[in-house]
Amino acid sequence: MNAMPQDIPATHLLNQPLVLKNGLVLRNRLAKAAMSETLGTDDNRPLPDLVQLYRRWAASGLGLIVTGNVMIDRRALGEPGNVAIEDEADLPLLREWAQAATAEGAAIFVQLNHPGKQSSKGLNAYNIAPSAVPFREDMAAFFATPREATEAEILDIVARFGRSAAICRKAGFSGVEIHGAHGYLVNQFLSPHHNRRTDRWGGSAENRRRFVLSVYHEIRRQVGPDFPVAIKLNSADFQRGGFTQEESMDTIRALAEAGVDLIEISGGTYEAPAMSGGTEEQKRPSTLAREAYFLDFAEKVRASVDVPLMVTGGFRTAAGMNAALGSGGLDVVGLARLLAIDPDAASGLLAGRDSREMVRPIVTGIKAVDRLGLMEVLWYTAQIKRIARGRDPRPRESGLWSFLKSAARSGWATYRTRRARARD
Questions:
Q1: Which domain holds residue 125?
Q2: What CA–CA distance (Å, rounded) separates 337 from 340?
Q3: Which tops the pLDDT comparison, 24 or 8?
Q4: Which residue from 158, 212, 234, 330 has the least number of CB within 10 angstroms?
Q5: For residues 31 and 325, what is the distance between their CA atoms, to the nearest angstrom?
Q6: Is residue 2 in a domain?
Q7: Measured distance CA(54)–CA(331) in Å, rounded
Q8: How many separate domains does the chain show?
Q9: 272 DSSP 8-state letter
Q10: CA torsion angle for 176, 180, 185, 186 (degrees, to 10)?
């Protein structure tokens, strides 16, 4: 385990350890939030590049690292190159991945996910969701209308979450995080916009919470009481008729009562990308001054539950992170895009020094692409892949050039993924 530098200010709140209720100690309050890596093979098995990538992030001093979304079913991918954990076939490499972080002193949680409808056209044989609700008109060219999930399919997905979590525990990961935000399947069940069912999985807000609570309880059943289970939830969907802050608060209370170990607060979906600063509220001077996009909501949550809270989105400076922790509204500061352009940023932040790099909007100049916010995933994923291959990121790389490369690679990768699945 790396020792922390001796010149770190004792009053710098980022350096305080955090003990979760099961006894896991996070060495500090700085976390890497999930970002898409797409470092899986054509048939969705982990690549050794993940080991190098996570070793570098862990060596920077981070207290907690959350992986990019790992799928529970290789028939339901969000992107080409997703890693899927369905069985123990990849256990040796999964152990290396976990040890890359834990050997450096960081805790590492696997973010488990099912995309539901939020998967590009042609990647999966079909997409399922709570209800057959299409994407908005300007996104329909990229995302197909899903089929409504059957009762049997819902129960199978719940079981798969538990099985994947159990394998993560066996591999030596420190915990798992349920991805319940950003418009993926768990979030779709919570949202009245996406979930228009009239059975026990929809209708009332209580019924719409049934899926996420079933996933949590099944994971807990399979991993036991002493293995951390976290969840990432939207404060709101920022979408007409979607998941509201009031419903989010009720869901958080239900999960806290059920025993969840850590709650990460974010917001938005692909159709309303609040997680990357896409709402007018997040552009207000008062929000920019506090840095964190979702801090106001987190402070309301803190008054309601005592579960440790992680807030991701908007943090820029060590002073801003320290002030947020000092407010008592959160326990862990989540960083994402900054760590894709400065993978060693944590060491400076923990010493009270800001990164020399700044997260900036990534645009291509193509209005249809920029309106969708696609580059907030594609551009940063390209930088992550450079780090994973032992190179440094290119913080000033052209958005247009990155888009053209990513579009070509994605089309070819989608074809290879479908071909690999056909051989199974």
A1: 13-361
A2: 5
A3: 24
A4: 158
A5: 13
A6: no
A7: 23
A8: 1
A9: B
A10: 100
Place of tokens 């990538």: 53
Closest alpha carbon to 114 in 13, 25, 182, 14:
182
Q: Mean per-residue pLDDT for 132-160?
A: 93
Q: Which of 372, 376, 340, 373 is nearest to 358 (CA)?
A: 340
Beta strands at 107-113 and 128-129: parallel, antiparallel or unpaired: unpaired
Largest CA distance in the chain: 59
CATH number at residue 179: 3.20.20.70
Pick the range with the lowest mean pLDDT from 150-164, 214-228, 239-253: 239-253
| Cα(385)–Cα(376) distance, integer angstroms | 15
Residue 125: how many other CB atoms lie within 10 Å = 10
| DSSP assigned state of 13 | G
Query: Which residues partner with 265 through β-bridges?
Result: 233, 311
| Model confidence at 38: pLDDT above 60 | yes
* pLDDT (tens digit per residue) in 99-144: 999 999 999 999 999 999 999 999 999 999 999 999 988 788 889 9
Q: What is the C-alpha separation between 97 and 95, in angstroms, rounded? A: 5
The Cβ of residue 124 has, within 10 Å, a number of other Cβ atoms equal to 22
**Is 127 within a domain?**
yes
Structure tokens, 119: 């998967």
- Model-level pTM greater than 0.85? yes
Residues 293-320 pLDDT 10s = 889 999 999 999 999 999 998 899 999 9
**In the structure encoding, which two tokens stand for residue 267, read together?**
């917001």
For 133, the token pair is 């609700």
For residue 3, the model assigns a pLDDT of: 39
C-alpha angle 89/391/416, rounded to 5°? Answer: 45
- 408 inside domain: no
How far is the CA of 247 from the CAs of 142, 254, 276, 396, in angstroms? 29, 11, 22, 40
